[in-house]
Each structure stands twice: as structure tokens, then as C-alpha cells.
Design brief:
Largest interface: A-B, 34 and 33 residues
Low-confidence stretches of chain B: 150-154
Mean pLDDT of chain B: 91
Order of helices and strands of chain A: EHHHHEEEEE
Helix content of chain A: 10-25%
Strand order of the largest sheet of chain B: 1-3-4-5-2
Shape of chain B: elongated
Strand content of chain B: 25-35%
Low-confidence stretches of chain A: none
Strand content of chain A: 25-35%
Oligomer: heterodimer
Mean pLDDT of chain A: 96
Structural class of chain A: alpha+beta
Largest sheet of chain A: 6 strands, antiparallel
Radius of gyration of chain A: 16 Å
Order of helices and strands of chain B: EHHHEEEEH
Largest sheet of chain B: 5 strands, antiparallel
Structural class of chain B: alpha+beta
Number of helices of chain B: 4
Shape of chain A: elongated
Chain lengths: 139, 154
Amino acid sequence: MIRAADVTAGDQLPPLTLTITRADLVRYAGASLDFNPIHWNERFAQEVGLPGVIAHGMLTMGMAARVVTDWTGDPGAVVEYGVRFGRPVPVPDDAEGARVEVTAKVAKVLDDGTFKIAITAAFEGKSVLGGATARVRLP
Amino acid sequence: MALDQSFIGRSYPPSPAYEVSREKIREFADAVGERSEIHRDPEAAKAAGYPDVIAPPTFAILVSMKANEVLVMDPELGLDYTRVVHGDQTFAHHRPIQAGDRLVVTTHVDAINSRMGNDIVSVRAEISTEDGEQVTTARSTLVARGTAATEDQA
């Protein structure tokens, strides 16, 4: 588990590649009780002007949190986490799914001793979570 | 049509309690790919200093989104919920949500704006235990796409 004494501003966290498939969308819909049909019904998604079924923004947010929790080792270290939902992530009906590349770095050490982490998440090279940051408290 | 500005500052009565179970935490952790045993094994959670398994950082959406429905569905506010998308989301945890918590949510309307033809409502869900211990503050913006357009053009 990482300790505060080992961390300085500018440190890069190990990056993460997320793979999101249709099965992940169904699993997340069940776990989160978000049954909006744009996340599972191709016909409905197209009727409302989307290219097809898209991932729940909250699923991308939830999965991207792992770039921080894998690093801290303790998921309870995350005292704050926020994102802006940018471009949607279309999820094709195939075995590969959509790939989202997640990076993170220590942006600064705050006055209360917590660390601000700046996170990026990109699909096909374009940002899908804007201004994503977490604040972590380390032992 | 622009939304009623008098809703700014309004809050709704607390939601019925939501009881957090170990199984729901495990299910949610599986769904977002969180692998930590602290979400699954009470002994691992105790070893890390928690009384029981804790929830992943975004688990609070389960209770905050449900509580926000009172606002989204409020006919007096007149938000067109068929056009509502999630603009942003922040969770500030006073402590992690843990199995056994009985959570109640109070929903507050912090701001109402219109920008580029969209109605934008800033909502704050204050999540606490039934006993009044603060657990999480969840802030969301709800964006109703295109609903403010008529007003702008007029």
C-alpha cells in the first residue's frame, strides 16, 4: 500500500486500459439499477439520435476510479472523486467492446495533507471524462 | 421554457432509508471491476481499519440518483426528464459507505441555469445515516437538452 511519504506532485500513476463490452453494460445496469434503454437497446439509442448503444457515464467513471484505487490499495482512501461527462462511449455489439485509456498523475499536495489526482480517460484519442479529479488521503 | 428560478435553494424531505448490504457492494464492485478484497471480505476490511466491507467510490450513485428522482419528476419544476442527461458528478466522502449503513438522502437544488439552449440544474444529495451521521455529499448537474431553446430564440 502506498504511503504519503512516498508521493510527490508530478508522480504518474500506472495507466489503465478499460475494455467495456455489452455484457459490462448489462451487469452495470443491474448493479446500479440504471435501466435507461440507451445503454442496452440499439433501436432505442438510434431513435434518440445516438450512433448506437453507449456506456453509462457512471460506468466509465466507476471503472476509471481503479486507476486511483489500484494505486492506493485501499479504496477508502478516495475522499473525493468528480468528473464531467464529455463524449459518450459507443459500445459495439462484438467481443472486443470499446477501449478507454485512463491515465492519472499527482497534481498537487493540498494543505490538509491529501493529494489531488488529475485523471484523463480517452476513447479513440478523445476525452470522455472532462476535468476528472480525485482527492486521496494516504497513511 | 425556462425553469422556475424559485426552485433554487429548495430541498426535498429525506428519502426512505436504503440499507447497504455486503452483497450489493460486491455486485457493484464486480460491475465496475474493483478487485479489492476490502469490498468483499469483512476480515480484509477489518484488517484495513473498517468495521465492515466498504463500497467503491461511486456506489453512492445508487442512492443519490434514486433520491434525485423527486426533483426530476416534480411536475412543478417541469424538467423534461425524457431529455435529461448527466452533465457532471462529484462525490465527497466524509467516510466510506459500509455494509449495514441505513442511508437517507436529502436532495437540494443548488442552482438553475440555462446555457446554449439547455436547462441545467445543479443538485446536491446529502447522504447520511438514519442517526444523522454525514456520509457522502453527491453533487450532480442534470442537463435537459434543448429545452431552453424556445426561450432563447424568442
